[in-house]
């Protein structure tokens, strides 16, 4: 029963839609009515700017971290000999938070894609793998300037790193990593379509620098 209540709590934590709150509180608008229509960090960044987007991204990551740490409330999972059970339960809690982000009860079940919350979850469970995925994301963003493509490739790198580089033995964790990669691809179908037809928006990484050089 305790596990069920914590999973429900993790879902409620994930349901806190930071993008919707920031857009309504400080910009008098609903972020879901602009841009891609998603209540996530990427759309916030594009519509409201880097300051709001960065804040939303960090807060969404924190949701994943908080959800995972809820497992330690139960003394059983804090014992070293129960590490495998701890990781499995943390995955369940993290997924509940991601589901909450995608279908937030506090925001009419219209949320974002859950990438930042997912990253926060993995960061809390396996920091090295999470940071490796960030490296893949940043490299692809630098090379292509596509946030969506960078997110997709970073998610695909997750199971590859977990299974072949870090040699994870836990079957449930490996299946989880593969499922996450498939989920990210599934939730980015529209982005993939725009990437294929060349209409996907790029992040102007060097716009400000070029302006300064021009001046």
TrEMBL record:
Pathway assignment: Lipid metabolism; phospholipid metabolism
Subcellular location: Cell membrane
EC number: 2.3.1.275
Transmembrane segments: 52-74, 86-106, 118-139, 146-165, 171-187
Enzyme class: transferase
Keyword Nucleotide-binding: no
Taxonomy, superkingdom: Bacteria
Keywords: Cell membrane, Lipid biosynthesis, Lipid metabolism, Membrane, Phospholipid biosynthesis, Phospholipid metabolism, Transferase, Transmembrane, Transmembrane helix
Catalytic activity: an acyl phosphate + sn-glycerol 3-phosphate = a 1-acyl-sn-glycero-3-phosphate + phosphate
Assembly behavior: Probably interacts with PlsX.
Protein's job: Catalyzes the transfer of an acyl group from acyl-phosphate (acyl-PO(4)) to glycerol-3-phosphate (G3P) to form lysophosphatidic acid (LPA). This enzyme utilizes acyl-phosphate as fatty acyl donor, but not acyl-CoA or acyl-ACP.
Family to which the UniProt record says this protein belongs: Belongs to the PlsY family.
Identification of the protein by name: Glycerol-3-phosphate acyltransferase
Gene source species: Compostibacter hankyongensis
């Amino acid at each position: 029963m305790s596990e069920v209540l914590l999973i429900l709590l993790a879902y409620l934590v994930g349901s806190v839609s930071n993008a919707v709150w920031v857009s309504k509180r400080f910009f008098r608008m609903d972020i879901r009515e602009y841009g891609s229509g998603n209540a996530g960090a990427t759309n916030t960044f594009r519509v409201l700017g880097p300051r709001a987007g960065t804040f939303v991204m960090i807060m969404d990551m924190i949701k994943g971290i908080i959800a995972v740490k809820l497992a330690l409330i139960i003394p059983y999972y804090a014992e070293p000999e129960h590490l495998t059970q701890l990781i499995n339960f943390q995955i369940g809690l993290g997924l509940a938070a991601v589901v909450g982000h995608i279908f937030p009860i506090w925001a009419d079940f219209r949320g974002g894609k859950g990438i930042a919350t997912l990253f926060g979850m993995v960061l809390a469970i396996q920091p090295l793998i999470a940071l490796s995925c960030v490296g893949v994301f940043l490299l692809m963003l630098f090379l292509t300037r596509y946030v969506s493509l960078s997110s997709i490739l970073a998610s695909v790198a997750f199971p590859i790193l977990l299974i072949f580089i870090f040699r994870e033995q836990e079957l449930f964790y490996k299946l989880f990593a593969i499922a996450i990669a498939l989920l990210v691809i599934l939730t980015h179908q529209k982005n993939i379509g725009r990437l294929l037809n060349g209409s996907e928006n790029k992040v102007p990484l060097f716009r400000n620098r070029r302006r300064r050089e021009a001046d």
